[in-house]
Design a protein that fits this description.
The protein has 12 helices and 13 strands. The chain is α/β, with parallel strands linked by helices. α8 links the parallel β5 and β6. α2 runs antiparallel to α9.
Amino acid sequence: MSELPYELKSAAKELDAADGLAALRERFVLDDVVYLDGNSLGALPAHVPDRVADVVRRQWGELRIRSWEESGWWTAPERIGDRIAPLVGAAAGQIVVGDSTSVNVFKALVAAVRMAREDAPARDEILVDASTFPTDGYIAESAARMTGCALRPVAPAEVPSALGDRTAAVLLNHVDYRTGRLHDLPALTAAVHAAGAYAVWDLCHSAGALPVGLDEHGVDLAVGCTYKYLNGGPGSPAYLYVRRELQDRFDSPLPGWNSHAEPFGMRPGYEPASGALRGRVGTPDILSLLALEAALDVWDEDGVSVVAVRAKSLALTDFFLRCVGEYVPDGRVESVTPAAHTERGSQVALRCPPGPGSARAGGAPTASEVMKRLIERGVVGDFRAPDVLRFGFTPLYVGFADVERAARVLALTLAETG
């Protein structure tokens, strides 16, 4: 690649000039690095540090305990849940923010089984996405033991044929974390309901990147993290969605004083609060919770919508695949992300086999080594074993020139290493 194809650099410039979301890049703390790892940790919105400083210095430092009421700390989990709701297609009053994704998966899955058992006591099986993020699998196995259910891993495409009158709940990922494949939430949810079971969806790799439609498609329960496409910061709290029609039946396996009908009554017996508040457990993580609330302000900008973000996401990933096809020699990488828009999330995963020998043997480098070299050259993605390079595209701050540069640096890196 002694000379770069002029048409791709020119195309990137034209696409950036026509991008209605391009100005949002200035709302984030970025440098000259091409940051394509927002599917693991979103970039920092530039206004968040000052907001957090106010929380620490004034709300905590000056008001102290008064801030539970005067600064709205007590109502933050449901208030911020209502901020997230339109990003996942939910009406207000159905999302509560707090705890980790793993904890919320546990709450949702056990509650789903309990509801299914109320409907039909013989339901004693949980289906789980066989390709799920490992922690979801661990949690599902624990929930199955706790509820006396059998756990059956099933590929999402095979769920409809695997459902039966013993199925209590199904735990699925909207987007596969490794390949970026987008699963058919409407069709799979409908199939689960037709079998009389309850659908629990993990939205970690879709919320903030594409439309979800929780209410529209009748999803029962859903969970998701906020530090990826929602840019809430490292370890920012997750959220739990409980469909309004199920809230009176939601029986959390983790009842706490924060979800009690009278939290300050300090009664020995537990009486759950009404609504999505049943998903709360203990004292909220106020600092990270309010950092997340500030980060969500970006979505209040004119012209910013999930629909606009999705359109740009598809354009970015299309352009990346085009650039990789033009720049990278045949056979060096293979996309494992579906080409069809209806099956693609907001990332591209490239299989990068080591070739005739590992770098240690003088041959082509492993995928892990390739990613290390890309990061050294200012293109940040990540690696998933055994041989996958992942590139996440956050439309709020990634541009088309970033995409062209990433593909070009990838090609140069592979060319230099044989």
